Amino acid sequence: QVQLQESGPGLVKPSQTLFLTCTVSGGSITTNYYYWSWIRQSPGKGLEWMGSIQFSGVTYYSTFFKSRTSISRDTSKNQFTLQLSSVTPEDTAVYYCARDRGDWVTDYWGKGTLVTVSS
């Protein structure tokens, strides 16, 4: 059973950079075939895919977030991270990490972590 757990600050000030970490257990982030993704849901909005890192380390980003987003990984800790720069209150959301299969179907989700952007 694969488990994902998001961690990071619950409150970030405007213009700062948000850092979130997803710790994976029950499976390796380097296992062939899988993508490891960040998705968010802002209040009153649907789910937004932000980007993913493939088992090989190749990254993919949403056009909407690409200029402000960086996804990286630490294979020794079986973790992957999200950096979102120049945050505004509109970036207030529940942030999820998830695993996608090679066909981009999500099969495992973290529980999500609420990040509030406020001064």
What are the salient characteristics of this protein?
single chain; 119 residues; globular; 4-stranded antiparallel β-sheet; 0% helix; mainly beta
Topology (SSEs and partners):
Elements: E1 3-7, E2 11-12, E3 18-25, E4 35-41, E5 47-54, E6 59-61, E7 69-74, E8 79-84, E9 93-100, E10 106-109, E11 113-117
Parallel strand pairs: 2-11
Antiparallel strand pairs: 1-3, 3-8, 4-5, 4-9, 5-6, 7-8, 9-10, 9-11
What does this entry show, briefly?
Helices cover 0% and strands 52% of the residues. The protein is mainly β and 119 residues long. Strand 7 (69-74) and strand 8 form a beta hairpin.
Task: Write up this protein.
- The protein is an all-beta fold and 119 residues long.
- It is built from no helices and eleven strands.
- Helices cover 0% and strands 52% of the residues.
- Strands 2, 4, 5, 6, 9, 10 and 11 form a seven-stranded mixed β-sheet that branches. A four-stranded antiparallel β-sheet has the order 1-3-8-7, with no helix packed on it.
- Strand 7 and strand 8 (79-84) form a beta hairpin.
- The radius of gyration is 13 Å and the shape is globular.
- The termini are far apart.
